[in-house]
Design a protein that fits this description.
Elements lengths: L5 E4 L4 H14 L4 E5 L3 E3 L2 E5 L5 H10 L4 E4 L5 H4 L3 H21 L4 E7 L23 H20 L3 E6 L1 E3 L12 H10 L4 E3 L7 E5 H13 L11 E2 L3 E3 L1 H8 L8 E3 L3 H8 L7 H7 L7 H21 L1
Parallel strand pairs: 1-2, 1-5, 2-4, 5-6, 6-7, 7-11, 8-10, 9-13
Antiparallel strand pairs: 3-4, 10-12
Helix pairs in contact: 1-7, 2-4, 4-5, 6-8, 6-11
The structure holds 2-amino-3-ketobutyric acid.
């Protein structure tokens, strides 16, 4: 059996930080090549610098290290992407085409593409949005993800590259802060709560969005990548559901730990993006094909977020 060698791009980001740890726990440190656009480090040491828009640099690693799996996490998210649409398209799409080309040329076994609920736009049904809804994304991030899904499907059907993909909801985790998404509020709010600070939310209190807790998001990723090839019927991207809640509901949950937690609402441009997205997701295809189901509900998430962030704060104080 061929020895696994796993390349992660965007390893220093919110999802990348947690995924690197999960892949190291599963396969061992020497198997995982963590890369990011800029020099970064984490608990496992330095992350190698790789600009995934540079085909030659990417090919060199994939060829020389006999890479067998690629998790392509490098991307600019929905809110930040609007500041520079052309650059966002380049980073998100050019890098993905490079990954697909490298996978094709060097026979990489499996490739993972993170898509997003941002592929849906104003036309899609908002409640229980299905896998096959019409895609008319509002943001350049959403456009790049919707196109990326099609490119993944194309490389699968035309060249047999084993591309697998999930449409992540907003991801909540304590490992690191997210950078530039519309769902970031659901992480920032816990950082404010544990510091006994008030939070000003950039979405209105009743905006319901699909979310997922990091352990569920990581488990979904690994379960999809481990599923037998014949079980993967969708080569664009799978809807996955975690849970849906509004800013008001997360505040109600946080107040079970911090009864005096204070919130103000001051919606900005991200409100329009959020309103173009589903409020809840139908993931029956993922349930059917590879047995997906989420475990975490809102109070479980609050409990773990608050506990883990307090632990981290204590360690920093002691250092
Ligand atoms: C974002 O808000 O841009 C991301 C996403 C839902 O893809 N978290």
């Amino acid at each position: 059996m061929q020895k696994e060698k796993i390349l992660i791009t965007g390893s220093g980001g919110q999802l990348g930080t947690a995924l690197r740890k999960a892949l190291i726990d599963k396969y061992g440190k020497d198997v995982v090549i963590a890369t990011d656009l800029v020099p970064k480090s984490d608990e496992f040491g330095n992350i190698d610098v790789l600009d995934a828009t540079d085909q030659k640099g990417l090919d060199k690693i994939v060829e020389e290290q006999n890479v067998t799996q690629i998790y392509h996490l490098a991307a600019i998210l929905s809110a930040n992407g609007e500041a520079n649409p052309v650059r966002t398209w380049d980073i998100n799409l050019k890098s993905w085409l490079n990954v697909l080309e490298a996978a094709r040329k060097y026979n990489v076994g499996r490739v993972f593409f993170p898509s997003s609920i941002a592929v849906f736009g104003t036309t899609a049904n908002k409640v229980g949005t299905s896998q096959t809804e019409y895609l008319d994304p509002l943001t350049v991030y959403g456009i790049s993800k919707a196109s990326g899904e099609q490119w993944g499907n194309y490389y699968f059907s035309k060249y047999g590259v084993d591309v697998r993909s999930l449409r992540y909801p907003g991801v909540i985790g304590h490992e690191s802060l997210p950078g530039g998404g519309t769902t970031d509020y659901a992480v920032e709010i816990y950082h404010k709560a544990i510091n006994n600070e008030a939070y000003t939310c950039y979405l209105s209190e009743s905006t319901s969005l699909p979310m997922i807790f990091m352990p569920d998001a990581i488990r979904a990723t690994l379960e999809l990548m481990d599923a037998p090839k014949e079980k993967i019927k969708t080569r664009t991207s799978y809807n996955i559901n975690g849970l849906s809640f509004t800013p008001k509901e997360i505040v109600d949950s946080i107040r079970k730990w911090y009864p005096n937690f204070s919130i103000q609402y001051s919606p900005d441009f991200r409100q329009e993006i959020a309103e173009s997205w589903p409020s809840s997701i139908n993931d029956s295809q993922a349930q059917q094909d590879w047995n997906w189901s989420a475990h975490y509900q809102l109070d479980d998430i609050s409990n773990e977020m608050i506990t883990e962030l307090l632990k981290k704060q204590d360690l920093l104080r002691q250092a």
